[in-house]
Amino acid sequence: MVKRVLWGLMGLILLLVVIVAVNTLRQSSRQLDVPPAPLLAVDEKAAAKHLAGAIRLKTISSYADPTLNADEFRRLHDYLQQRYPRAHAVLARETVGDLSLLYTWKGSDAQAKPILLMAHQDVVPIAPGTEKDWQAEPFAGEIKDGFVWGRGAWDDKGNLIAQMEAIEMLAASGFQPRQTIYLAFGHDEEVGGTRGAEVIAKLLQSRGVKLDFVIDEGLLITEGIMPGLSKPAALVGIAEKGYLSVVLRVPATPGHSSMPPPKGTSAIAMMSAALRRLEDDQLPASIRGVAREMFDTVAPEMSGFGRVALSNLWLFGPVVQAQLEKGASTNAMLRTTTALTVVHAGNKDNVLPGMAEATVNFRLLPGDTRASITEHVKARLGSDRFELMALPGSAEPSPVSPTESASYRLIERTVREVFPGTIVAPGLMIAATDSRHFQAVSDHIYRFSPVRAKPEDLARFHGTNERIASANLAELIRFYHRLLTQSAAR
Question: Most buried of 56, 182, 193, 381 (most Cβ within 10 A)?
Fold first, then answer.
């Protein structure tokens, strides 16, 4: 009897191994098979100098003061006009929302849907006290060791300058677009985009414009970030997470600290307990939606156990998910995240505060809503004494743009042609971009920056020693040049 059971178990194990092996091997590559594009001659040194000049303009945006650094933004506008005369000869330029720019290159076919390329002019400030940690002064626009250094090199003046360089080259060659090309350069993306990109989107909507596709900053070309994948991976954001910050307030009876109230009833105690419940009871994670599509696309390109596991998520899903949840960026792909960001209570060491206040930030996975997250918060407060308020600037998760569309295939093809050997897969943008304001004028919004990044580079984003390789900047120019020429040829 025991032998029969053992033989039966061995048979089941063998069958399982066969099923896993067959399922792994039959997952064929989903990558477009295209030859590399002819190498476009780009003046790499000149482009690096042009980006360096743009970095020297301190276009830092502000929530509170819309006019902050307005002169620097206007200097950037003049700078672009001086550096790109051919582009400005074919483009009609409008200033929108006082400091944002909308360029229009009219196409030859009035029936063809126009396209929109986006970038933003503004940058984040330098964290106080970190200036000494920079290898090059953050706003000096220094070029050294093959890199352009400074705030905005990645985010997002690199894309802006690359787009203008590509337009300048196309205009000089006599290129005529088939469909109208728009360029939208917002001035307040880092503080929500409501004064810039949102106004541009409403302007286009008022003119009856319906865009074929939008491409904005977003996910990168990563190298060495995903174990088991030896090739660079270009992740194209087909959706971005929503945004909701909830302020919690709980009142209590103020008094002297020598006579504290019963355990757990002070304002700080009640707030601490509520925050602990929100921290401990995170919203559920799962490998679904955009994350599932990304892993299905990447799996055939992987080696080792990574390929086996991702090709058989029906079996290894719990193991893969447990590993992904351990990393901050990968965890964010799987769930609506909860972040405790601000706490205020008390103003003197011997006084019990009469109020405690905290802010909790949620980044919403497609499928969740602001209403459902608010209910999640209410259910975990533990008391009806709490007051809730949503801060301005919240947004629902974006719709998911299709990967079976001609516009996604155009972006995919362009990446494969300009960056030979690079794997292209859809991804989820976990931060917010200006592109979310354009949902009313396009169903095809993609978030991708053709910037190369290794694991050690990721901390440079909004951090110290932001930089971009001059050679990579030239690749950005080739990408936008190729994207526009191929779009016209469709």
Answer: 193
Angle between helix axes 304-311 and 2-25 (nearest 10 degrees) is 100
- Whole-angstrom CA distances from 234 to 405, 419, 429, 453 are 18, 9, 13, 10
Let me know if 223 is a catalytic residue: no
pLDDT digits (tens, 9 = 90+) for 93-149: 999 999 999 999 999 999 999 999 999 999 999 999 999 999 999 999 999 999 999
Please tell me whether residues 214 and 349 are part of one structural domain.
no
Active site (annotated) includes residue 155? no
Instruction: Indicate if 371 and 439 belong to the same structural domain.
Output: no
Strand order of the β-sheet with 387-390 is 337-345, 355-364, 242-251, 387-390
Question: What's the pLDDT score for residue 18?
Answer: 66
Strand partners, 209: none
Are 185 and 120 part of one and the same domain? yes
Segment holding 255, helix H or strand E: strand 255-256
- Does 17 map to a domain? no
* Residue type for position 111: Q
| Domain encompassing residue 469 | 44-240+397-488
Concatenate the DSSP letters of all residues of 126-176 into one string.
PPTT-GGG-SS-TTS--EETTEEESTTTTTTHHHHHHHHHHHHHHHHTT--
Give the pLDDT confidence of 276-309 residue by residue, as tens digits. Answer: 999 999 999 999 999 999 999 999 999 988 888 8
Lookup result for tokens 């880092």: 190
Does 328 lie in the same domain as 416?
A: no
Does the residue 33 lie in any domain? Answer: no
Helix (H) or strand (E) holding 54, with range, is helix 44-55
Query: Are residue 464 and residue 382 in the same domain, yes or no?
Result: no
CA dist 262 and 269 (Å) reads: 10
Cα angle vertex 47, ends 42, 50, to 5°?
160
Q: Indicate which residue of 142, 156, 189, 417 is catalytic.
A: 189
Alpha-carbon separation of residue 259 from 74, 252, 351 (angstroms): 59, 14, 10
State the average pLDDT for the chain. Answer: 95
Is the Cα torsion angle 83, 471, 488, 212 positive or negative in sign? negative
Q: Which helix (H) or strand (E) holds 240?
A: strand 233-240
pLDDT at 17: 66
Kindly report the CATH number assigned to the domain that includes residue 425: 3.40.630.10
Containing 217, the helix (H) or strand (E) segment is strand 213-222
- What's 253's domain CATH number? 3.30.70.360
Q: Where are the beta strands (DSSP E) in 288-431?
A: 337-345, 351-352, 355-364, 387-390, 423-429
Catalytic residue among 122, 142, 301, 475: 122
pTM for this one? 0.94
CA angle in degrees (0–180, nearest 5) for 318-313-239: 95
Phi, psi at residue 231, to the nearest 5°? -90, 155
CA 473 to chain centre: 19
